Structures are given as C-alpha cells and as structure tokens.
C-alpha cells in the first residue's frame, strides 16, 4: 500500500515533468508561428528538437516501464483513482507506441516527413504532383511498416485512425459515411435544382484589418472565450494551441476584402480553445489536460463555427453589433441577408473554402483515397486521376491542376493519414451534441438570440470539456447523448438548415 | 589525442544542450513579460522552474566535473582552441559557484528572494521601509554566507561584484568613482550656477501611442537594430532579451504625454540588442553567446542612448523625420531646442529618471551603501537616513518618503548586490570606447550626421560585439582602447557636452 502510494507520487511527478516539457515546446511553437524573427528560427528549431527528445526519452525510459508495470498490477490498478487510471492507460499507450518502433526507423521517418513537407510546398507552388510522388510513396511505405509493427484489427487503416480517434474503426465509419454521402449529394442536388442564390456581395466589401480585429475580439469575448486565459493573434494559418487551461491561444487570418474568412476562423479556433480552457484544473500536469481526440476537438470548433455561428439566432443577436461595426459596408443588409450569405452552398475545389454541406464530401473523398493508398489498391501515381473521378462523382466539378487537387492539403506530407476523417466525425459529434443540448435545454436557441452563450458553454463543460483526455471519444459521446456515434443527427440538421436557407420544399 | 577530441565533442554537445535549455526559458520569460494571459502564469512559472533546474543540474553533474577535469589537464588545455578555452573557463566558474553552495541553503535563499520581491512591491506601494527591512536583513545575511563559502580577496564585496563584472574590484572602482563623483558634483554646481534652463515643453505634448510606436521602429531600424533578428514590443518595464543572435528582442514603454521616455528606452534596449545580434555566429550553443559582463552590456546601451542618441549630430540627422512624424507637436522647435531639451540636467530623486550627468551620482550612492551594508558598517535600520544624507551631499535633494528613497529599486529584493556599479562602469566604458572610435574614425560624428550608423556598429562589432563572453571585460576594453579602465574619458565627455549644452565658460 505504502509502496504503491510512493509509485503513484513518483509517477505523477514524472508525468508532470513531461507535461512541462510539452508546455514549453507549445510556447515555442506558438512563438514561431506568430512573430518570431526569421533569423532565429533555425536555432529555435534545435531547441524544440531537444525538448521533444527529452519528452520522448522519458516516455520510453526504464523508469516509465517500471512504474507502469507496478501501477498496472491488477491489485493496484483497481484501487487507483480515475485520473490515475487514465494516466496509466494513456502513458502505457504512448510507451508501447514509441518503444516498439526501432529508433533508426523513427529517425528516418522523421527526416523523410520534414523533407516531404518542404517538397510538398514546392510541388504545390508549381502544381507538380510528380515532384511530390516519390515522397508520398515512401511515406506510405513507412506507415505500412508501422502498421505491421503496431499490428491491427480488421482493416489495416484502423491503426492509423486510432492515433487520432481512439476506438474508431473503418468498420464504424464506412456505413456512417456512406449514408452521409448519399444524403449530402442528394441535398446538394436539390439545392442546385432550386436555383436560388445567396447575396454574398455585402461580405465582400472592404473591411479594414484593424476594425475586423476589434470585431473578432468582441465576438470571441461574447461567446465565452476567456481573454484572461488566452489571446488572439494573427498568423498565416489560423490555429489554436493550449499551453495550459489558463493559457489557450487562438490566431486568425484577416482578409480585408472579406468579412467572413477571419470571423469564422476566429470562432472555429475559439471553439477549440473554449474546450481546453474548461478542462478540469486538476488535470493540469497529467498529460490528460487536452482534448479527448481530434474528432471531439473538432466537434467543439464546428459546433461554434457552424451550428451556432451560422445560425439565424446568432446573426439575429449580433446584428446590431455587426451593423454598428461596419455601418457603410452593411447598409441595407438585413439579418436574413447575412444569415443566407454565410450559409451559401457552392461546390468548390478547395476543402478549406468549402461550405458546411459540401465539406464532408471533401473529407470522404480523402478518407476513401487514403484507405486505398494504404492497402495498395490505389497507386500513388494514379492518385490525381482517382481524385478527379471522385470530385466529379460527389461535387460535379474537377480540379484544373494538382494544386487545386491532390496537392492542396499539407496533411499527407507530414504522414498524417487517418486525420481527415476526424473532421467529419467532428461534424457528426457536433450535431449529436446539439441534439442532446436541445433535449436538456429545449430553448437554448432563444438564449443564443439573447446572447446568453454561457448556457451552452456550461452544458458543454459538464458533458465534454472537463474530462479532457480522461474519457475516450465514444465514452464522452455516450455519456453526453445517451447513445453511440450516429450520423442521423447531422443529416437531419443539414436537411433542416438548408430547407430553411434555400426554402426547399 | 583521440580521447581529448572525444571529450571536446561531448563537452560541446553537453553545453549546447544547456544553452538550448537557457534559450527555451528565455522565450518563456519574454512571453510572460509581453502578453501571456494572467491565468496561465502560475503553471508557466513551474515550467520555467523545471527547465532552470535541468540547467542547474547539468552545471554541477558528475559528467560536467569529469569533462572539466579532463579538458583542464595542462597538456590538453593548452591545445584547445580559444572558444573551447573560454567555454572551459566559464563552465568551471559556474560549476564551482553552484557546487559549493549546499542545495538546502540555495533553496532557502531562492524562496527568500522570491518572497522579498513580493514584500518589496508592497512596501514600495505603501512607502513603508520597516515592512521590507527584515527581508533585506536576511538577504544580506545570506549574501555574507555565500561570500564566506566562495571566499574573497581584498574587500568582501568583491565576490559580489565578480558575479556581474568579472575582474572588477572595490580597489579598482573606489578611486575611479571618487574622481568621477568629485567632477560630476562640481560640473552640476556650475550648471546650476549658470542658471540656464532647457525648454522641454515640446517633449511633453500629446504623442499618440501608435505614432510613437512607428517612430521608434523607424529609429531602431535606422541605427542598425535588425528587425529580421528581433522585434519591438511593449511591456511594463522595458528590457532586451537575447534568445540567440538571430532573435534578440526589445521592448519599450510608451507614455502618450512624453516623446522621450519611449524613444530613449527603445534606443537603450536596442543598444543592448545590437550587441547580441552581432555576436559571432560560431558562439551559438557555447553559452558564450551573450554579453561579456553587465558593464560591457551597459556600455553599449548607454553609448547608443546617450553618446549617440543625445548628440547634436543625431538630432540634426533625424530632425526632418521627427518633424514629419509629429508636425503639430514640434511646430517651431529647432534642432538646437530638441538637442538641449533631451540633455536637460535636473537633480531628481529617482534613478531611472535621472539625466546623463546625475545618473552616476545615484549609482555611487548605492554602491557605497551596498559596501557598508555587506561589511556591517551600516545597519539596514539606518539605511533610509544614510540614503538621505548622501542624496543631500551629492544632489542637494532628499527623498520625501521611502518609495522615493531606498525602496525605489527592485535590485536588493532579488539579492542583486554588486549590480548597480555596472551601470556607471558602463558609462565609463562607453566614453572610453567613444574615444577609441574617434581615434580610429575621426569623422564618425559626420557619419552620424549623414545617418551612416553602420560605421559605428561595424567598429563596435570588431572590437566588442563579436567576442560575446569569450573575453573578460578588461580584455575587451584593453584590446579596443589600448588601455585599462579609465574614467577620465567620461569626465571629459561630460564636461564637453554640458559646456556645449549649457554654454558654460
């Protein structure tokens, strides 16, 4: 008893140190992405590498093995508190994943992906898939080696999925996505047949950066992003980063010719950040003080960006503010005009510019291609063609070059296969959570209409945020909604929304 | 031979890791001081503490001892290259300093100074010296314990001085300061008798923060601060911080009712930063990539702030720019008006507000009090009285309360005894360097008048900057100027300047 208490204490202190390394590196990364001067970046990368190596070494050190072994003894494990149990579970996973890959192999792979990212940037710039092809082939080869080392159940791709969405498998996703795809394509066709267009001209006027900055800050503060525990900056690619729950930062990118780009990216990132700001404080230093999975994380950002941020209630509440902030640009625009404008559906080539409905079709295309690439059913050389075929099938358009096709996303160059599906899982979870929220607080939309966003954050904190990584995604969804993952809520939500926006019958 | 090459390599890698820890912590500190949200700061302090502890542990680890022993063998040491020699010298110093203090004693002292800083802030706020007195007494007691452990030659205070200005002793400073004090007091009296006042009204108009920010950036860029290797932010107390030579950041503080506060603090900090930006790149990762001492560092900031920034040539060159930046505020102000305004001499109670002439008197007062406190000739209880007496002697004014007297500076609460004199040493070095610069480039002031500041930076880089911590302060001064430390250049410089500004005869 005494002994296992000592081990627990030592384990906590050990993991706290790892968490501190991780936090240090997160600060350095944020700094690199928001304004570190160029001449110091190369040396800074070495600092980041050193800290990451210390973290990695700790994760596979003999001490770690011994502590996990002791705490994992059945007699001991059952007596651990829930936080300890989750820590042991997560650290064991990390240990096994890291320990099983030979150091040399991992090193080769790290070098490959960092070169591949540079090659991808250049290939995208020149729209030259052939230049990127050898890198992608090698990456897929390594991923398959990792899958063989780690093992897999069911589909080979499951092992990759598990990195981003623990517990989710091809066997779960395939039927969900099949149904979502069918209904999305059909809804898209009905919208296109209806032939009604949104008036988006108001959103495309000149919106000065300084005014947008102030407006975005105002909105974020209103919806519950805590500026005493965060800050908003600008960066090339918007992101959110949790250093600790008292310091979760967001960035946005401002386009002076467009009101909605910065606004929705700010709200999206604030969704991620509000999640991490509300993780239970007792999880600090346990490495559980982060999102449960990429999908659950994305459920929060998408919930705020789309379900709330693109709702009629939201625009109704903020209408006086937005009209006052941009009186000239928005003179004559009604709530309904703006609501319809931000919900325009328009098939497009680029995922990150896609609307709420077609977005999932971009994801499913990538998911299907990834699976085929991993199994070898699709050769990298044939990827651009396969991409074009699916774009045509799902969206009725095809890329005019590689940059607007298979080279558009950074993910594959970093080896992030299995990541894309979490975006649509996020949309599915978000709609499920919205249904559960409606069940618990039937008039929550009226609260939004009055600007009382804390009702939502409170509910989300109770059911999602506070757990951090203590619960697995499926447990969170089940305990919050009373059922397992179910895409019907998303299809119903989309159906209702576009019936309203496009006056479908 | 083979063996000592291996030790050299291992030592380099080991020290590089320490330097990386230091750089990581510097980024975290910069972040804390420039905009980290308050709620995350407590946990961030733990991260900083962890990284500092790793650095400290490495500095006294058995491996360090062994490597220093091997590299220190006479046969080996003489064959090391100069960088290696300096690394061994510095790390040995660090090892001996850190190793000799019992861990428990150091821990107690760390806790004491962190509490003392909080107590000092409160005591200053309420102007209550009695509340701070017990902390100061304890700090002095610890410092005396450290002096006994580390040993001393000559005056006990030398051991403290050596922390900030290696090689400088009371025996060196006392005669220098005595002469400087006599001449400064006499010059001050002549200025006061002359009865001429500068017109500073132009500097006290309304200068909007955003305009000042732009103007400061412009000036810094012009004088050679490299914005590709740095950035300018705002903070409560202006500072500069070198992360690596490619990333040396400065901050300033803007007062909208004053043009010169931000301007001269920006130039001052840029002086520090230009120094570190120009340290030889091969010193990165050796822990020699920083200033040689506090005094040499201060010589650079003071040189830019006072000798250049408050020169007639400087104002002559920038006059069109400053007049264009602030046309309304400066309508009617001539170059001469501005030059005289920024060189106003006026005895004041607060060190950081003091002019170039009286500043050194503030320093000498502190230096003398520190010595007496350490030897026990002065009791802490008697400090406010002793302070008032010296203020009256040197400046002819006395504090109206403790906050404007002995409580005004943060240094003592952090245990930084021995630090103050480096400010005046910096002024002395700066004037010596200016004389050497004039000898090498007799028309350098004409270059300033044409805005060709790179001539100066080039000279300083050759003679000071590039060496980083490779040379000791005395070596730098001797190799740059051809002689040892000499305060005559400063007294001559001050004499000439104020004869010009105040038209003394």
UniProtKB/TrEMBL annotation, chains A, B:
Q: Which SUPFAM superfamilies match?
A: Metalloproteases ('zincins'), catalytic domain
| Names of required cofactors | Zn(2+)
Q: Where does Zn(2+) bind?
A: 268, 272, 298
GO aspect biological process, one term: proteolysis
Q: What does the entry's cofactor note say about binding and number?
A: Binds 1 zinc ion per subunit.
Q: Does the keyword Protease apply?
A: yes
Record keywords: Carboxypeptidase, Hydrolase, Metal-binding, Metalloprotease, Protease, Zinc
- Tell me the GO molecular function terms: metallocarboxypeptidase activity; zinc ion binding
Q: What is its EC number?
A: 3.4.17.19
Reaction equations catalysed: Release of a C-terminal amino acid with broad specificity, except for -Pro
Residues the record marks as active site: 269
Q: In which family does this protein belong, per the annotation?
A: Belongs to the peptidase M32 family.
What is this protein's function? Answer: Broad specificity carboxypetidase that releases amino acids sequentially from the C-terminus, including neutral, aromatic, polar and basic residues.
Protein name according to UniProt: Metal-dependent carboxypeptidase
